[in-house]
Amino acid sequence: MKLFRPFAHKEEGSILVVALVVLALLTILGMAASRLSETERGMAAGWKSQKQAFYAAEAARSYAARSPGLYDQTNMVTGAPRVFSSPSGLLGTRQSFAGSVEYLGHSDVPRGSGFETGRFRAYRYKIQCVGQGPSGAKANVEIGCYRLGY
Questions:
Q1: How far apart are CA 123 and CA 147, in angstroms?
Q2: Domains: count for the chain
Q3: What is the rounded distance in angstroms from the CA atom of residue 133 to the CA atom of residue 51?
Q4: How many whole angstroms separate alpha carbon 123 and alpha carbon 7?
Q5: If you ran DSSP here, which 8-state letter would residue 115 be given?
Q6: Are 80 and 100 in contact (CB under 8 A)?
Q7: CATH code assigned at 139
């Protein structure tokens, strides 16, 4: 017994065409997802390098704060900053820092410092710190501070 299908000869191979179209769409979707994940990986690596450079600059700030020889009585000439760099072994092999401490002048002591205004002076300094991270990443930190004295 034969079944009558008048359009059956026109549908031969159509499932193959549909399967190829679906396969092509899935391939394009997979390539887009792969490219997106590669871009995100690169962004994460850049963010990590930038953070390491920032931490190196913060280490420079801390180093300058703990090095009173950078802002003592011998560094009291405006326009002549005293430079410093990271000692060996302080940071990792892929990080370093450098910076400068510049004397800006003196003024009365700030309010709330607990010192007499006429008796003491505030010697103002600007500390600039540059941190280097992996892949050439750089970060700058600039702070102002003062030293009290007579």
A1: 5
A2: 1
A3: 8
A4: 97
A5: S
A6: no
A7: 2.20.130.10
